[in-house]
Amino acid sequence: MLYHLFSYLDKAFDFPGAGMFNYISFRAGLAFILALLVSTLLGRRIINYLQKKQIGETIRNLGLEGQMSKKGTPTMGGVIIILAILIPTLLLAALNNIYTILMIITTIWLGLIGFLDDYIKVFRKNKEGLSGKFKIVGQVGLGLIIGMTMYLSPNIVIRENIEIKDKDTQRVENVMYGSKDTKSTKTTIPFFKNNNLDYADAFKWAGENAQKYGWILFVVVAIFIVTAISNGANLTDGLDGLATGSSAIMGVTLGILAYVSGNVNYAGYLNIMYIPGTGELLVFAGAFIGATIGFLWYNAFPAQVFMGDTGSLTLGGIISVFAIAIHKELLIPILCGVFIVENLSVVLQVSYFKYTKKRYGEGRRIFKMAPLHHHFQKPGNAGIEAKWQHPIQPLPESKIVIRFWIIGIILAAITIITLKIR
User: Fold this and answer.
1) CA distances from 47 to 55, 81, 392 (A)
2) Which end of the chain is more exposed for a tag (fewer CB within 10 A), N or C?
3) Burial of 356 (0-12, 13-18, 19+ CB in 10 A)
4) What pTM was estimated for this model as a whole?
5) Are 305 and 50 within 8 A, CB to CB?
6) Which DSSP string corresponds to 171-224?
7) Residue pair 185/199 in contact by the 8 Å Cβ criterion
């Protein structure tokens, strides 16, 4: 809103200082500061309200050190994150930008699903919360909306990078872009010299229909990524500050990727596809980073508030949709490695337990406890069979969180340098 107001004042009246709002970096910085203020100042009031209404977390005793001390800690704090993202975005972003619209829809959509889940748990006293089927339907629905919008919207286009090589050495001397924007099923694939992968290439046998089938594959990939990463963030939210800090790291990385992809000069230097309009996502990224860091003020160990599914589903959804929007969804396995490993640890634990129960009559476990972060927190031996077993001393919660953050930072750095390592 402020962006559009100051743009009008700048054009119509040459209002002093109004032209600053034309700079994405300026608005991104403001969005970060405003989100930080909203999440810390408004967050305190929301926490006090949650405490007053006794909206506290119900804790099951799983034998984890310090676990029961968290009983009664206010939950549903994800509302703080959502407000701290939406307020700066609505004020400072270009609201006619299709990518901004998609991110706002994602934030509200998954925020409502998570809020409904928390509401059922807290107010209806149903520990199961919203049925898993309804969560999946909501996540699949969002993935479908994102995928179809990117297919149908005339404002979502790319300009593919064209290498100009020296005739003798075959070294790339320059990178050019076509004069016209094009709809494309191409995306970025890491570690390959020509790092543009076209989904349509999987259907070359279909001839003229290859592009259409390519878009269908893209939509399916979008649905899978949104569902997997939002669930991964949800599972990661088990220790104070773990999901919040990890999301902030991913947000910084995605903001950088969006800025260079949306700037023709930086895109040319890095020899990556130029995606007009995605630079505006830096404003949303600024709000996202500010909101998560601000929330971390209260969510760091020992947590004064939990985000609940209201926050965790939203954070995972935002990260996945953001990556899809800038055609970097195939970098997700690297960037979101923490979320993915947490997801896989649960899948492996449950699958192996069912398999061994069927084969041996008793269920056995790979990890002491899943998701993975609880494996390092729980006392006892690791491994299932005697030859694998070895004692692992439980680590303090804060140490586990910090180490996961460090891993997240390493993965984020690798994600960024994949643009040059081919």
Assistant:
1) 10, 12, 36
2) N
3) middle
4) 0.92
5) yes
6) -EEEEEE-SS-B---EEE-TT-SS-EEEGGGGGGGGGGGHHHHHHHHHHHHHHH
7) yes
3-state helix, strand, coil in the chain (%, to 5): 65, 5, 30
Q: Are 47 and 295 in contact, with CB atoms under 8 Å apart? A: no
Structure-block tokens of residue 113:
């699903």
Q: How far is CA 88 from the centre of its chain?
A: 18
Closest to 156 (Cα-Cα) out of 307, 252, 261 = 261
- Report whether 371 contacts 312 (CB < 8 A): no
Give percent of the chain with pLDDT exceeding 70: 89
Residue with tokens 């396995």: 333
Q: How confident is the model at residue 400 (pLDDT cuts 50, 70, 90)?
A: very high
Strand pairing report for 172-177 and 186-188: unpaired
Measured distance CA(106)–CA(110) in Å, rounded: 6
Q: Is the peptide bond before 371 cis (omega within 30 degrees of 0)?
A: yes
Question: What is the predicted pLDDT for the residue at 106?
Answer: 97
What's the pLDDT tens digit per position in 5-55? 767 777 777 777 777 878 899 999 999 999 999 999 999 999 998 888 777
**What are the structure tokens assigned to 4, written together?**
């559009």
Find how far residue 307's CA is from the centre of its chain.
15
Strand partners, 165: 172
Distance CA 377, CA 165 (A): 54
Q: 56: which strand partners?
A: 74
Terminal CA-CA length for the chain: 41
Domain definitions of the chain by residue range: 23-58+70-157+204-332, 346-391
Q: Which residue has the tokens 């790092």?
A: 195
